[in-house]
Design a protein that fits this description.
about 35% helix, 4 helices, Arc Repressor Mutant, subunit A, two-stranded antiparallel sheet, about 90 residues, binds FE2/S2 (inorganic) cluster, mainly alpha
Amino acid sequence: MFICICNAISERQVQAAVAEGALSLTDLQGRLGVATVCGCCAETATEYLPGGRYANNVPAPSLGAVVDDAANDPSVGGGMHVHQVRRA
Ligand code: FES
């Protein structure tokens, strides 16, 4: 099912972005481009964020996604790394 028709963004893509740490509509817009054209999908996309009506439909992030995020985060330097898993 598409959430954002203008940008052909699916429910799964929105769920994955939230599972990977998106916490706001701005995060979803930056990661996916959702709600950046007509804006009609903004309210629905927001419902997948923590506290939203569909937040419970978002799978927990896999350990691999968390490690990948940390590996790609320039603020994570050498030394000991602490990985935190956020849940909705
Ligand atoms: S439906 Fe998402 S920006 Fe138009």
